[in-house]
Amino acid sequence: LLPLLLLGTMALGQPRDVSPAGAQCLEHECFAVFWAARPFSAASEGCERGGGHLMTVRSTVAEEAIALLLQNRSGRLWLGLSLPPSLPCTEPSRRLRGFRWVTGDRSTDYTNWAPSGQRCGERCVTVSRELRWEERRCEEAADGFLCQYSYGGSCPRLAAPPGVLVAYTTPFGARGADFLALPPRSRASVPELGLELRCDEDGESAGPRWGRDAPGAWPCEVAGGGCAGPCRAEGGRPRCSCAEGAALSADGRGCRSVCEGSLCQHHCVVAGGTFVCMCFEGYRLAADGVRCEDIDDCASEPGPCEQLCVNTQGGFECRCHPGYEEVDGHCQRRSPCHKARCEQLCEELAHGYRCACGPGYAVDPLNATRCRLYCNATECPAVCDASGVCDCPEGFVLDEGEKLCMDINECESNFCPFNCTNTAGGYECHCPHGQYLRNNNCVPILDEDSFSGDSEPVPHTPEPSRPPPAAERLHPGLLVAIAAGALLSLLALLALGLHLARKRGGSRGSVDYKYGGPREKELGLQPVPSAQK
C-alpha cells in the first residue's frame, strides 16, 4: 500500500458538497474525495477553490490512495483527464487515448482503461470502485470527484498522551483525528488542554512546524511543548531550554546559536555558553575583539623569503631579484639562454649568449640561431637519422658503404682560368700577379683604385714627351739587321702571350666555386659563400 508517509484517513459520510468526505495525505500531497453530483467543469472549479485540481493518477501510489478513499463505495468520480479541443475523438492506440491531464501534460507511468473502442462524444474520464477508467460526456454529472493538493512539506501528527484527543482541520476543509501529517495552514485543536496550534511554514527551520501566536512552550506532554530543545516544567509552567552554545529564539521555543547576530568579522566560536571571535590565518584579532587585522609577515625576523618579500592581505609573496627566477622555492640566477632560440646548443657569455652546434654541424653564417652540416677535413662521418637516411655537407659526396662524407676535388674539373686550390668542401681560383678574376676570367688591373685584393697591381708611370731625333742616314746592311731583330722580337712576344694565356688564373680570395655533384658524373659548378670554405 502507500508508503506510510501516508497520512491518515477520515471517516466517510454524507457532508455538504463543499467539504470532502475523506482525505489521504502524503508528505507533499493530499487527495480528497467529494461525493457531490456535478459535471466536469463544476467539479474542476470545486478543487481549484481549495487550492488544488482534479486528481492525476500517474502511478500505483495514487491508485492505492483512490482505493482507500472509496472504501468499496460504488459510484463514478471525475479524474483530471479531458480530451483537448483539437481532437474530435479518442485515440485508443495511444497510452492516454489522446486525453491530457488538467495540468497540461500527458506524462504518466500508469493507466487502467476499461475496454472500449474509439469514442467521439465522451471527452472526460471517470474512475469507478473497480478503479477502471471510463470515457464520459463532460456535461453529464458524475457521482463525485477527486481532488489533489500539492505542498512543499507537512507538519507531523502531534504526539499527545493516551486518551487526549487532537482534532485536525486541513486548508481544503477535511476534518478528522487520524491524520499522520498535515499540510501547511492546517490547524490542531486539543480541547482538554485548551490548546490551539497551527502548522506554519517557518522560514528558519527545515520545513513547516507547529506553532502558535503566544510565545513560550505549551504543555510539554503535547509534542514536547513545541520546543526545539528539552521541555521542562518549572514552577508549574512549561519552559523550553537549549543545548550549550545555543539560546532561545524570539518565540521562546526555537533554539539559535549564540553566534547568530554576532559582529565577528571572520569566525565565531562557541565557548562556555558564550562566543569568541577568531580570525583567519594571516590575521590577528583587533583590540575591539570583533574585527581582524592583517599581519605583516614580511616584517618578521628572519624574513620568510630568500630575496624579496611582498606583504598581501592575509599572507605574503616571495619574489626574486631581477636576473633571478624561482625554481622549487629558491631563487636561481636566470640563464641568458632561457629565452634563446638556438636550434641546437646555447653557450653563456659574460654579457649574453651565443648559439652553438653539435658535432658535424657549424653555425649557419646567414642565421646565427641555426646549424648546418659542416666538415673541415677531406672526409667526415655522415650524419644519419633513425631511419638510416644519411646526409653530407655541401661540397662532399656520400660513401654509402662506409657512411662517410668524402670531399669533392673541384680542381680536377679544370674550370679555374689560371690556378686552383682545393679546400674542404670548396676550392679557390687564383690569377697571376697584376690580374684579378672577373666572370671566371683573369683580366689586367688597369687602375690601382679599381681593385683591392691579393694580387699586386702593375704600376703605370708616364714619361715626359720629347721631340723626335733628327733623321740619320743608315747603312743598308744595318737596316737588314734591324728588320731581322724586329721579326725575332715579334715571335718572342707571340710565344710569351701564348704562355701567359695558358696560365690565366684569379687572385686569391676573389671568388670561390665548388662542385655540387658526384665525381663520376659531369661536373656542375655553383657559387659558394666564402663562409663555407
TrEMBL record:
The chain crosses the membrane at residues 477-498. One of its GO terms (molecular function) is calcium ion binding. Residues 294-332, 407-443 form the EGF-like domain. The keyword Transmembrane helix applies. Residues 1-15 form the signal peptide. Residues 26-140 form the C-type lectin domain. It is a single-pass type I membrane protein. GO terms for cellular component: membrane. It is found in: Membrane. Keywords: Disulfide bond, EGF-like domain, Glycoprotein, Lectin, Membrane, Phosphoprotein, Proteoglycan, Repeat, Signal, Transmembrane, Transmembrane helix. The keyword Ligase does not apply. Residues 451-472, 505-533 are annotated as: Disordered. Residues 459-470 have a biased composition (Pro residues). Interacts with ITGAL, ITGAM and ITGB2. Interacts with thrombin/F2; this interaction switches the specificity of thrombin from a procoagulant to an anticoagulant and antifibrinolytic protease. Interacts with ANGP1 and ANGP2; these interactions significantly inhibit the generation of activated PC and TAFIa/CPB2 by the thrombin/thrombomodulin complex. Interacts with PF4; this interaction enhances generation of activated protein C. Interacts with HMGB1; this interaction inhibits HMGB1 inflammatory activity. Endothelial cell receptor that plays a critical role in regulating several physiological processes including hemostasis, coagulation, fibrinolysis, inflammation, and angiogenesis. Acts as a cofactor for thrombin activation of protein C/PROC on the surface of vascular endothelial cells leading to initiation of the activated protein C anticoagulant pathway. Also accelerates the activation of the plasma carboxypeptidase B2/CPB2, which catalyzes removal of C-terminal basic amino acids from its substrates including kinins or anaphylatoxins leading to fibrinolysis inhibition. This is Thrombomodulin. The lineage of its organism: Eukaryota, Metazoa, Chordata, Craniata, Vertebrata. The gene is Thbd.
